Amino acid sequence: MSERDGAPIALTAAEMTDPVALLDRVGTDSPVHKVLLPDGMPGWLVTGYKEARRALSDPRLGRSDEHAGPDLKKYLALYNDEFFRHSMVFNDRPRHTRMKQLVSQAFTPRYLENLRPKVQRITDGLIDGIVAAGETEVIESLAVPLPNSVICDWFGVPMNDREEFRYYCGVVTGLAVSTDENELGAAGKYFDRYLGELIANRRVDGDGDDMISAILHGQEDNATLSDIELRANIFLMLTGSVETAVNMIAGGLLALIRNPEQTARLRADPSLVPQAVEEMLRIDPPVATVAYHFAKDSVAIGDVVVEPGEHVVISMPAANHDAREFPEPGRFDIDRQKPHLSFSHGIHFCLGAPLARLEGEVFFTTLLDRLQDIELAVPESSLEWKPSYYVHRLMALPIRYTASTARG
Fold it and tell me: What is the pTM of this model?
């Protein structure tokens, strides 16, 4: 019996974020599987690395809901919201290209390198705040404050607004598991209103050195975005940059705790930290599932032909653990060279990837310099993850450590 003829496999959120459990459930005989997502939405789940890479860059798979079959419309809550549907992540060429031309200026190498001293200062301050205590909960003390402070400073989000901003970001990432459609609608209204006010203030000020001001100056020279597109894409940059880095920091630190021999190598040679960050991203992708690809035409993926209107879902954990491409995929190995897919591929490659890498490099270099003997403060079996199949977010990561007697 072919994959097309068989019954779909109903997956849980926990299975979709755990590559071992997922591949045990769907098998490895085929790189494409007929599934039901945790919210019941049908789709073809791509678990093979090569197949995922091709699918992510195949123009016959569109992100716009105009290509989705009628039976899928009831699952597309994000598209139903007038705010979210105007971000480039839900659009195809040429609209995607038009949007990306302007907002990509936020992540040029020059801008990012100018951020390095700020990332270092924020990291130093956060570790100053916990170093003497000997223990901390990483999510609240380090993983959230670092990228939240970096990106909110960069985009000029006032300090008093950041807690509410963070709350609504959590609502969006819980889509289809811990978030219902009413909550999603409230989040869309909040971001639409709040970012509209923030942009209006920047237009009045006129001379700010934050990224929203830079984007507005770009609009003056070449007005490529409508007002709602401007708000929706600034939302995308803000939330995506924070969520990716939070999960990378927490998941990466857990990987180091689990692999003391690799950690010792990094302490001995900090120049290895950038490649260690890549392995952290591979072994535990911050964004686990890339859903909402719809076939415009018949598309062959692996041994399956996806018909027009059908839904294709990419599993980042499974693709990054494809044993055909990554020998012993569950082993944390900072010497791996093959690129992972954790930042996607093709035209929807994550714009915030260079920022996440910069934050990871600075954070882990500094942490390993200042803290020794890092270990879990609770049994690993007690760790819990956010109920979501889109992101892989630890709810808490309590650790113990000692302060380094000498700093590099």
Answer: 0.92
